[in-house]
């Protein structure tokens, strides 16, 4: 569940702690020219459990027109974007390799599962929109597998390994807060991180031509606007992704409001539908 952020109240220092702090300062216990007193902790990143839950709901609103992202383990269809079957909580595709990796992981963990027999076909169709060797039973078997907790966990783990963790790591390296980390995550979900011009890494490179992230001395809002401009350009290169509302009426809404920590409540629209997280 998403929890509204609660105000953090820092208690007054006890007399013993106060004396210890004075002693540290008096003895010259300095770090980088500053006293050894710890700075207040930064706001949670996207990998904070509550923030991550928000991210899952935001992506699901765009990918599945629903905030119930856990209902998407069983989702599977060919949406006609040239990537074959799209399925699961993050849109694993039979034509892009991530579905093959997912089913392989599931089979490594649970040999003989209902999807294991499709591994040869998934290897053959990788890189195409073909259903050869998958039809007619694959969608039904996918939905059956989705009832298995082991398959659900495999989806979670592959989502994190391929998409979520790299996006958050790059966001933190760029000194972006939770919103920026989410903007990266949503981009890598849609575009992947390959070498083609519209991949995540090349969207980021395009943004860097006109702005710098905070880690390089830039302004966070200015940089994120540049990144979203580059993202919109990438989306418009492909008809299946040409609707940019997940940027225009979602991510830019949060950015314009200065909600760089992605704090709830959140209100946004995708494809004209309104959503709310309280």
From TrEMBL:
InterPro entries: Glyco_hydro_46, Glyco_hydro_46_N, Lysozyme-like_dom_sf, TAT_signal. Keywords: Glycosidase, Hydrolase, Secreted. It catalyses: Endohydrolysis of beta-(1->4)-linkages between D-glucosamine residues in a partly acetylated chitosan. Its EC number is 3.2.1.132. PROSITE patterns: CHITOSANASE_46_80 (PS60000), TAT (PS51318). It is found in: Secreted. The keyword DNA damage does not apply. It comes from the Bacteria. It holds the Pfam family Glyco_hydro_46. Signal peptide: none annotated. The keyword Hydrolase applies. It is an enzyme of class 3 (hydrolase). Aids in the defense against invading fungal pathogens by degrading their cell wall chitosan. Belongs to the glycosyl hydrolase 46 family. This is Chitosanase.
